[in-house]
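ok posting inputs for the glyoxylic acid job
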Amino acid sequence: MGAVLLATKPNNLAMWRDALLAVDPTLEIRLWPDWGQEEEIDAAVIWGAQYLQELRRFPKLGLIVSMGAGVDHLTLPPGPPPGVPVARLKDTMLTQGMAEWVLLNALRFHRQDPEYRALQASRTWEELPPPVTAERRIGILGLGEIGGATARLCAHLGFPVMGWSRGPKTLDGIETYHGPAGLDAMLARTDILVCLLPLTPDTLGVINARTLGLMPRGGWLINGGRGGHQVQEDVLAALDSGQLAGAALDVFVPEPLPADHPFWAHPKVFVTPHAASFTIPSSAAPQVVENIQRLRTGRQLVNLVDFAAGY
Ligand code: GLV
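and the output
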């Protein structure tokens, strides 16, 4: 039987090994860079483009599993070894974490929390106009696993929720848009814009001066996708002009966000360090093991990445 190679930050390796062994104690697991016999490795579970070149050493490699939702890191040169299928995670805890982070920030903006904090700082007892949930329109970019769950959660609270995807999709209770014209139409009606897209050549820079300019003035941006989705100077300009009233950003170019970047100290920006959500190995392990078992028994792999689509 083959061996599974784990490659990620050294301090996460043992947690992943234990999580996989808890599902299947018979797995033979090797931790990067101690892979042993190269021809024994038939599956690699990895996070990071820095391992891609070395994966070409393993002649029997039949599956790569990415330890996260987004696979843009694996599209960087040199990419996965040709012909080796790549699977990504669709994990309920990862999805839940992201939906919570979006909700935290949507409610923060909706309930005027930044404004009330400013009033508190000046010891000012003043009521702001009451927020009306049914009138606060949330537009979500990306209606995959995470975007769909987030859309349902926001709709459940009573927000009017719209969602945009590359191709047409239907979701109960969500007004859906697709394609370039659909994007513009949704933005024109979006008070709180949420980005949960995969990063692909098509979605790179989708949040820019033009698209932010289509939103009604004084809206908010919540980006839990990738830093590459936002043209950062355009986001800053929109905040400074008042086109955007606030932004909650979890992702940046580059990461870590440099200490002198204006986002850090901007009064309208809420920064988290790519920590909106996490892959919890114990939650993700069953689907990773399932795919390894499928590989070894010649069955159809699941959650495969379509590199032509980019996710
Ligand atoms: C994290 O950023 C992920 O894509 O899972």
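notes: The mean pLDDT is 97. The pocket of glyoxylic acid is lined by residues 68-70, 94, 279 (CB under 6 Å).
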